Amino acid sequence: MLNNTLNKTLNKTIFKSNVIKKTAVLTVLASLFLVGCGSDQNFKREVEGNEDYLKSPTLKPLVIPKGIKVPAESGDFYVDKSEFHGDLGKQLDIRPPSLPIPTIQDAFAIYNNGAVTFNVPLSSHVWERIPDSLSKKNISIVNRDNNTIKTGNAFMPRADEDQAVQATYSIKRQLLGDTETIAISITSLTRGSDDLMSQPIEVQRYVVGLFNDIMDDVAPDSVRVVPPKAQNNSAEKDNESKKPATAVSDTNQE
After folding, report:
1. CA separation (Å) from 27 to 16, 20, 21, 30?
2. Could you read off the pLDDT of 72-121 as tens digits, one per residue?
3. Neighbouring residues of 95: CB distance < 8 A, sequence distance ≥ 6
4. Fewest Cβ atoms nearer than 10 Å: which of 57, 140, 186, 203?
5. Is pLDDT above 70 for 31?
């Protein structure tokens, strides 16, 4: 009797130990899987769905029997047979190009040929605030004078990239009356051992990205605070959504 009790107790202990071990292993595997999914940013750059369209058969020329008349050719139904050279399927980057957004009144900006050029009033003191903005992003300055800033090689992380690029920038200023024109350009851009300077979209993404970061730092408080009218409208909508729904009586019922 005592042996049976001891065996049952031992079996229960072994069973519980195995369950705990299996649970621990499954928890570790699930954690590793979730970490892997969380670090993979490809979904932010890829087209959703499968790639079966890439397996579509090549169009064959139409064979017309003798004695059959066919309509005249129309450009509306022309199929381009030229071969496509470039990324397809999941390799295609669907992110739109970045655009410069000036946040200072009476300022304008334009991106052209690898550089962002913008003009701002001198009273905005943008040039004097650029070094602090670079410092916040851990971008060092290797050379600086009254009209030129050259940065050291710095990592430029993005939430939609698995591997951060390294870039160096050149920032130049020209005084024009009571305004200043500042041009930001990239002098080197690499991801690991790959040189990205020959890829216009990548160059645009990172030079415009730095410009917009600087604009966010130097933006006046007036563009950061929601106007009172908008705040009131938002509060009214919230209040309306919180009101209990009123029952609608049916006048046809007695």
Report:
1. 16, 10, 10, 5
2. 877 787 777 777 777 777 767 777 778 999 999 889 999 999 999 999 99
3. 44, 45, 160, 205
4. 57
5. no
Task: Quick: pLDDT tens for 176-219.
Answer: 999 999 999 999 999 999 999 999 999 999 999 999 999 999 88
Phi, psi of 68 (to 5 degrees): -100, 125
The model scores a pTM over 0.70: no
Question: For the chain, how are helix, strand and coil distributed in percent, rounded to 5?
Answer: 40, 20, 40
Residue that is written with structure tokens 């990324």 in the block: 87
Joined tokens for residue 2: 């005592």
Secondary structure class of 165 (helix, strand, coil): strand
**Strand stretches in the chain, DSSP E:** 108-112, 115-121, 141-144, 148-151, 154-156, 165-176, 179-191, 194-195
Q: Do 207 and 187 touch, CB atoms closer than 8 A? A: no
Q: Which two tokens stand for residue 122?
A: 């001198």
Question: Phi and psi of 46, rounded to 5°?
Answer: -105, 155
| 110 within 8 A of 100, measured Cβ to Cβ | yes
CA triplet 90, 194, 96: central angle to 5 degrees?
Answer: 45
Measured between its terminal Cα atoms, the distance across the chain in Å is 78
- φ/ψ bin of 58: left (φ > 0), alpha (ψ from -120 to 50), beta (otherwise): beta
Angle made by CA atoms 136, 208, 107, in degrees to the nearest 5 = 90
With beta carbons less than 8 A apart as the criterion, state whether 110 and 117 touch. yes
